[in-house]
Amino acid sequence: MEEETVETPHGPARVHLTTVDEPIGALVLGHGAGGGVTAPDLQAAAKVATGLGLVVALVEQPYRVAGRRSPAPAKQLDAAWHAVVEQLRAGPMKGLDIVTGGRSSGARVACRTAIGVGAVAVLCLAFPLRPPGRTKDGQPKPSRLEELDGAGVPTLVVQGERDTFGMPPEAPGRQVVVVDGDHSLKKDMARIRATIEAWLPTVVGRAG
């Protein structure tokens, strides 16, 4: 695995890149709001992808590189993500179909930017559909379903059955796989790996 710094409009991002011989595609994954790229589900997805012949980049957003745990605003996250994917597309992922994704907040970024960065598909690990709890006036907090619906490309959602952020619905072009566990997706790693392993070849490296 190689580590490199990529400049973005909001400071340097850090990319952990794993290359393969004769790649059939590429996978770019982002982390959760307060976490990093060492999350078990991200690591599992990366390992599966490289085993299938994909170049993999795990991306640390600039706020995390700067040592902050509180996430940047959505527009900044999206702009930094665009910059990173653009540079990967011009370099180690040149000419490859690119699947983007991430866990939790990273999945939201991938959905919001999929069309803009030219992703062929999106992998969502623990998509945070609706924050738990209620607003000050007792109403449910706003849903992020519009972001998920707006991905515009084939999407796989892997969601823990006890995720307090809720369960996204299936829809045309969107597969939702429910696994044992909660929002951390740490429990049913075998099912998570098998699900990703079955799905990735359907969206990259296809004949014709």
UniProtKB/TrEMBL annotation:
The keyword Transcription regulation is annotated on this UniProt entry: no
Gene3D superfamilies documented for this protein: alpha/beta hydrolase
Domain KANL3/Tex30 alpha/beta hydrolase-like, first and last residues per copy: 26-188
One MF term in the entry's GO annotations: hydrolase activity
Biased composition range(s): Basic and acidic residues: 134-147
Recorded coiled-coil stretches: none
Domain of life where this protein originates: Bacteria
Segments of this protein annotated with the region Disordered: 131-150
Keyword annotations of the record: Hydrolase
Name under which the protein is recorded: Alpha/beta family hydrolase
Organism field: Georgenia alba
Lineage: Bacteria, Bacillati, Actinomycetota, Actinomycetes, Micrococcales
